[in-house]
Amino acid sequence: MGPELERITIIKQEITSGGWRFVVAVGTSADIIKYRVEVDKEYYEQLTHGKHTPEGLVKKSFEFLLAREPKESILGSFNLNVINTYFPEYNEVIKRQLT
Questions:
Q1: By CB neighbour count within 10 A (0-12 exposed, 13-18 middle, 19+ buried), where does 90 fall?
Q2: Residue 84: which domain range?
Q3: Which residue in 49, 64, 84, 94 has the fewest CB atoms around it within 10 Å?
Q4: Is position 76 within any domain?
């Protein structure tokens, strides 16, 4: 039996001059962790070609991360473009899933 799927919820989204800022919650009410995530518009376009929402990209990115590490290991605040530093396959996997 595989690991239980974590619930991923976008709590807040702000539009910034260079992209978006999100507050993301992962887990259930009893065991929730919140993250601050930034997405640069240029990076978003590179990964999705505008075919998915920024929220969709963030959710898919958290699914990607949670498949590889527990929610407690994910940085509390990060720009989406750092995921590729830790997981070099990230860009290609996300592009395949979203385009």
A1: buried
A2: 8-98
A3: 49
A4: yes
Question: pLDDT by residue (tens digit) across 14-70?
Answer: 999 999 999 999 998 789 999 999 999 999 999 999 999 999 999 999 999 999 999
Residue with tokens 């239980």: 4
Decide if 1 is inside a domain: no
- Tell me the C-alpha distance between 47 and 41, whole Å: 10
2 in a domain, yes or no?
no
Structure tokens at 81: 């473009």
Alpha-carbon distance of 4 to 55, in angstroms, equals 22
3-class secondary structure, 16 = strand
- Give pLDDT tens digits for 67-88: 999 999 999 999 999 999 999 9
Contact between 38 and 16 (Cβ < 8 Å)? yes
How many domains, in total, are found in the chain?
1
Q: Is the pTM of this model over 0.90?
A: yes
